[in-house]
Amino acid sequence: MSQEIGVILLGYGLAGKVFHGPLIKATDGLRIDAVVTNNAERIEQVRQDFPRAKIYPTTDAALSECTDSSVVVVANANRAHVTDATKAMDSGRHVVVDKPLAGSEAEALLLAKTASTRGVQLHTFQNRRWDSDFLTLLSFKETGELGTLHRFESRFERLRTIPKGNWRELAAPEELGGVLLDFGAHLVDQALELLGPVTCVDAYARSIRQSDGADDDMQIILTHANGAVSLLIGSQVSAFPDPRFMLLGSHGAIRIAQGDSQESLLRAGAIPNAGDWGTETITAEVSIGHADGTMSSRHLPLSRGLWPDFYAAVRDSILHNAPAPVPLNDVIANLRVLDAARTSASTSQRVHLDSAASHE
């Protein structure tokens, strides 16, 4: 395309190298001008992946020198998200922040105010909205075949017996580690998208592998304004994960046993703009009850996964004022729910929201 947007990528760990880098590279109209990292191994990887990109040791250096780059992607440690996003917006750049946008609703509101004041766009990488399995649930919900939806079960579970020792497993509050915030940022976002506003929150979060580590096992129960309930589970200590999704209604249910494969493909080095990108071999199982008491079941192919659509939408929002891929108010609502989950987990009490947390 005739217009190209220069991008500064902050961080080249898991988020920068596996997710953001390849997806930006695959998006027409975007180019990576610079990467910020001071890790010797990652510097060599950047040189291989983006030989034309400049490499800087600090965010400040990249912002001051890359004057032709109008977008900053914050893909570094959670503790730096608010600080670096603020610096980038203060320099007049549009910003994409890997989830979580911030550590709390209050911090997210300050970022939103800065974006408004500076006249720039602020986006959050809620890529799981474009998962094949979740898109399948959304499309199936629209048919009404399940009747009144009353329970949603959603899980990110795995077994990692030995902690990796990175910042995600540190218990210090400023690190913003642990599965409640990490997995919860996606699980809560999907629940609000699927079943609507949330009125109260029950949660627990605990550390199994390290007594002084960040939480590695958590559960959040959301009560929605329409009476439905979401059961959200995230764990690093689950050897037998239950189905990725179950959506139950008064007339039937849909179950998806395995999760979307786009992350695995990116980790393996697959090209995200390939023709068959996002096509899954797994299916969704649908079971429907009938008035005569009988049951019928069938398997459906999953919708195509569409992670590359995120950065295409960011590009179009900046160049053509198209809708944001994820409304900022949605992300703020997610953090409001996660704030309540942390309070519930620490007090062992249900938290009632003064007004429902809602995606608008």
Question: How is this structure best described in words?
Answer:
- Residues 142-255 form the GFO/IDH/MocA-like oxidoreductase domain.
- Residues 6-123 form the Gfo/Idh/MocA-like oxidoreductase N-terminal domain.
- The protein is α/β, with parallel strands linked by helices.
- It folds into two domains: 5-125, Rossmann fold (3-Layer(aba) Sandwich), CATH 3.40.50; 129-308 and 336-357, Dihydrodipicolinate Reductase, domain 2, CATH 3.30.360.10.
- It is 33% helix and 26% strand.
- The protein is built from ten helices and 15 strands.
- It has a nine-stranded mixed sheet with strand order 14-13-12-11-7-10-9-8-15, with helices on one face.
- Strand 11 and strand 12 form a beta hairpin.
- The chain is globular, with a radius of gyration of 21 Å.
- The model has no long low-confidence stretch (mean pLDDT 96).
